[in-house]
User: Which sequence fits this backbone?
């Protein structure tokens, strides 16, 4: 006891304070360590270990992967392009007084261009308008014989110079495929003559005109890039009848024509306009 008192008396105040702190820290740390050990054992006891008769802990559930946003080809916008193909015309001429008629057909090539606007009002449905102009090289020759003495032959010689259409378009889009129809009006300009032959008389008179009529069509178009597309199209133009004077009094000659076109084309579209 005297030794302890002697040590306390001889020990500086600073050293005694540090020693006291160390004793209190040890006293506090010991119960905390015991409490942590007890808590760890209790937590381990609560976690089931895999083994016979013991269920496995539930597996983590993966977050659902969002579905990709569907891609739709954009057909909306102004466009222009070129086309090339072939056309066939069927002509019927009728002598109205003698009520005799004859029909014939001719074919040739066409080439030109088109311009229009598409409005895609839903991912599948499209409406629009298109103007098309084609230079043509289509010739035909149609003759009818009038039962007279001597017999009279009337010949209609024609060459179609150009064809023009203006039509509404309505289509069904399957992504970058477009199936469409057309309806509107068509104009056909030709250089023609009517020849009357009643031996020994031969009379030639001009019969050129620009005739118009209804127009319907259908086609398929494929978009192979955001702005470029290719198409295949068929059009039918039913021209109105054109009446020409005859060399006979109180007689007229009526010319009826129908034109069918089949063309391939290429379009460039200004998307988003």
Assistant:
């Amino acid at each position: 006891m005297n030794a302890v008192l002697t040590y306390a008396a001889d020990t500086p105040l600073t050293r005694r304070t540090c020693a006291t702190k160390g004793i209190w820290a040890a006293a506090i740390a010991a119960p905390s360590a015991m409490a942590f050990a007890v808590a760890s054992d209790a937590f381990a006891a609560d976690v089931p270990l895999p083994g016979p008769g013991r269920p496995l802990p539930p597996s983590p559930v993966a977050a659902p992967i969002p579905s990709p946003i569907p891609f739709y080809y954009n057909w909306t916008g102004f466009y222009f392009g070129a086309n090339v193909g072939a056309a066939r015309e069927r002509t019927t001429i009728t002598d109205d007084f003698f009520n005799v008629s004859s029909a014939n057909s001719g074919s040739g090539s066409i080439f030109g261009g088109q311009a229009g606007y598409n409005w895609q009002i839903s991912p599948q449905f499209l409406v629009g308008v298109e103007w098309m102009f084609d230079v043509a090289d289509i010739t035909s020759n149609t003759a009818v014989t009038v039962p007279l003495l001597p017999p009279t032959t009337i010949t209609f010689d024609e060459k179609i110079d150009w064809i023009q259409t203006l039509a509404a378009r309505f289509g069904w889009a399957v992504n970058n495929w477009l199936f469409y129809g057309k309806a509107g009006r068509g104009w056909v300009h030709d250089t023609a003559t009517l020849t009357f032959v009643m031996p020994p008389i031969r009379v030639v008179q001009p019969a050129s005109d620009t005739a118009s009529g209804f127009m319907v069509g259908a086609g398929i178009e494929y978009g192979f890039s955001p702005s470029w597309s290719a198409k295949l199209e068929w059009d039918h133009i039913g021209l109105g009848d054109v009446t020409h004077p005859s060399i006979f009094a109180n007689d007229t000659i009526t010319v009826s024509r129908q034109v069918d076109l089949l063309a391939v084309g290429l379009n460039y579209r200004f998307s988003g306009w």
User: Anything to note?
Assistant: Residues 1-9, 11-45 have pLDDT under 50 and may be disordered.
